[in-house]
Design a protein that fits this description.
Rossmann fold, 3 domains, five-stranded mixed beta sheet, globular, binds nicotinamide-adenine-dinucleotide
Length: about 400
């Protein structure tokens, strides 16, 4: 018998909670479209995918990842989470994702460009501002988006900046997009602090991952009655119970150093960092960091998921038993897709909006979603998790749209 994935198990739980029928479950259980191609580079072929999980609320939306661990099932899981995230944030999008199974670290600029253009040559007929709109993800950035846009426009012989988001500003991108994920997570962190930790003199924070999402969150929280006591990157971490000098660490890292070589704080292994005593543990690195193996050792009171899927299904249950509240990825890291939505809207209308206005809108959207999830969670007297509350809200919205369309 095939073992169930974590997403299938989570859907089973929602099926029971929402009393879903078989047709509804079937619609949510698999992607509506999985396209696969091989991208050629230097005489070798690299498998690539573009998946639309569901598009009842609007065109597909989701990043493209270049990573050696990319697989069809990973892309499908990520597309499922995008489906829930866009619905939860009330955006007019479905959920999608893409990726190429390749280690991009050894590639030079020309090779990266060829790979990016190759992806569009393979999948262009399935993409477009009303079909499916990619964005950056792990190891893709605004330059990759620029090459992809250029290739798409060359093939089609017209301009369509809204076919991709996370672009450079000169090609229709937004100033606020780069930091939007961490900014959104910062609003969520403030909600946690205001709702649960307001009596604390200093809120202790531990952050796993010191890249785009983690570093910017550390910087923001450092100014907010918080004490960032430990941070890690892929090589290891640093720890100081009295608080780290975040600005100095960001500069240290920007100069090409690994955190483990920083000498003004104690070194700490990644495994140990996850089990430190802290108020907030922010996971901003990879999937599957808290599992049934280490969940029982976690001593944080609140976990913020900036990464996608950093806490697995069994770990969720253990953390719940230990009264550790997990603020789920589909809410915590949604700032990026909200900013992408602003970018797409601007591109489609041809209007350029003020940054302050967009920043306020992002804050409002994140806080509204937090309130929706938190109130729903409270209405069950804490008998469901925040993740389940978020999934239930998102799924109800998707199923309502499916019903209007006559598919159920
Ligand atoms: P990034 O590549 O900029 O940073 C990742 C960081 O994690 C790096 O500092 C890396 O050294 C560190 N890391 C890797 N393995 C680690 C390990 N085992 N232990 C500790 N640290 C480790 O990526 P990012 O953009 O900051 O994204 C981080 C996560 O957030 C990813 O899971 C991504 O999917 C998710 N996310 C990012 C965005 C976004 O807009 N940036 C949006 C939604 C979700």
């Amino acid at each position: 018998m095939e073992t169930k994935t974590d997403n299938q198990k989570r859907l089973d739980d929602i099926k029971a909670l929402l009393n879903l029928n078989e047709r509804e479950v079937e619609l949510l259980s698999k992607p509506i479209q999985t396209k696969k191609a091989d991208i050629s580079l230097n005489g070798k072929k690299y498998p690539a995918w573009r998946v639309i999980y569901n598009n009842t609320l609007g065109p597909g939306k989701g990043g493209i990842r270049f990573h050696e661990d990319v697989s069809e099932s990973e892309v499908q899981s990520l597309a499922f989470w995008m489906t829930l995230k866009t619905s939860l944030l009330n955006l007019p999008y479905g959920g999608a994702k893409g990726g190429i199974k390749i280690n991009p670290k050894g590639l030079d600029e020309k090779e990266l460009e060829a790979l990016s253009r190759g992806y569009i040559q393979a999948f262009h007929e399935f993409l477009g501002d009303n079909k499916d709109i990619p964005a950056p993800d792990v190891y893709t950035n605004s330059q990759v988006m620029a090459w992809m846009l250029d290739e798409f426009e060359k093939i089609n012989n017209f301009h369509q900046p809204g076919m991709i988001t996370g672009k450079p500003i000169e090609l229709g991108g937004l100033e606020i997009r780069k930091d939007a994920t961490a900014q959104g997570a910062y609003y969520v962190a403030n909600q946690v602090i205001n709702n649960f930790l307001s009596k604390k003199n200093k809120v202790k924070v531990v952050i796993q991952g010191f890249g785009n999402a983690g570093a910017y969150l550390a910087k923001k929280l450092n100014h907010n009655n918080c004490l960032v006591i430990a941070i890690s990157d892929s090589q290891g971490g640093v720890y100081n119970e009295e608080g780290l000098d975040v600005e100095e660490l960001i500069e240290f890292k920007q100069n090409g150093n690994s955190l483990k070589d920083y000498t003004k704080a104690e070194n700490i292994e990644n495994d140990h960092l996850l089990t430190l005593e802290t108020d907030i543990l922010a996971l901003a690195a990879l999937e599957d960091q808290i599992t049934e193996e280490n969940a029982k050792d976690v001593k944080a009171n609140y976990i913020l998921e900036l990464a996608n899927g950093p806490v697995n299904y069994l770990a969720d249950k253990i953390l719940e038993e230990n009264n550790i509240l997990v603020i789920p990825d589909v809410l915590t890291n949604a700032g990026g897709v909200v900013a992408s939505y602003f970018e797409w809207g601007q591109n489609k209308v041809g209007q350029i909006l003020d940054n302050n206005y967009l920043e306020n809108l992002l804050e409002k959207k994140m806080n509204n979603s937090w309130e929706e999830v938190f109130n729903y969670y409270n209405s069950f007297n804490s008998k469901i998790s925040l993740r389940q509350a978020a999934y239930m809200i998102a799924i109800k919205r998707i199923l309502k749209a499916e019903k209007w369309r006559g598919r159920i």
